[in-house]
């Protein structure tokens, strides 16, 4: 069974960042350290963990982009666990946390080859493509969030 939790120990954070690096930076030849950004201290961090082995199989972070607008980033799932619903599970968890924080909109910068994935989760393109690093382009995608009382 996969559970979602926040990293709390040094070892958990080390494994959390290692997965981000291995999935999001290493395949594109980016150096260690590029898996982190200036928003780390301001963010809520979440990880998908195998309950039986405690292996971290997915990660994502959430922070406030501007009042009422949440931004999630660094969504990564270990290659052996991709296409098993873990990314969707992490995004759903981030959406729920964003609602709890009172965000009305949640968004992310998606690589152009992942926009279909996010569109299936209810996100829409709301910006123009821009270069992220090297030849990688990203586009801002966002989703309006229903607040808990609206869903009742």
Automatic annotation (TrEMBL):
PROSITE patterns: GNAT
CDD domains with a match to the protein in the record: NAT_SF (cd04301)
MF GO annotations: N-acetyltransferase activity
Entry keyword annotation includes 4Fe-4S: no
Source organism superkingdom: Bacteria
E.C. code: 2.3.1.-
PANTHER family: GNAT FAMILY N-ACETYLTRANSFERASE (PTHR13947), LD18367P (PTHR13947:SF37)
SUPFAM superfamilies registered for this protein in UniProt: Acyl-CoA N-acyltransferases (Nat)
Keyword terms of this UniProt record: Acyltransferase, Transferase
Name this polypeptide is given: Acetyltransferase
InterPro entries listed in its UniProt record: Acyl_CoA_acyltransferase (IPR016181), GNAT_dom (IPR000182), NAT_camello-type (IPR050769)
Native species: Anaerolinea thermophila (strain DSM 14523 / JCM 11388 / NBRC 100420 / UNI-1)
């Amino acid at each position: 069974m996969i559970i979602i939790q926040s990293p709390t120990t040094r070892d958990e954070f080390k494994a959390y960042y290692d997965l981000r690096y291995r999935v999001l930076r290493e395949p594109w030849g980016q150096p260690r350290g590029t898996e982190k950004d200036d928003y780390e201290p301001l963010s809520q961090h979440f990880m998908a963990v195998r309950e039986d082995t405690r292996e971290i199989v997915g990660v994502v972070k959430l922070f406030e982009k501007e009042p009422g607008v949440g931004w999630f980033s660094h969504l990564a799932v270990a290659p052996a666990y991709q296409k098993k619903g873990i990314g969707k599970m992490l995004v759903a968890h981030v959406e729920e946390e964003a609602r709890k924080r009172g965000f009305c909109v949640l968004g992310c910068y998606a690589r152009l080859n992942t926009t279909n994935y996010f569109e299936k989760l209810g996100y829409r393109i709301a910006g123009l493509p821009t270069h992220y690093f090297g030849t990688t382009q990203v586009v801002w995608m966002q989703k309006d969030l229903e607040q808990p009382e609206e869903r009742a």
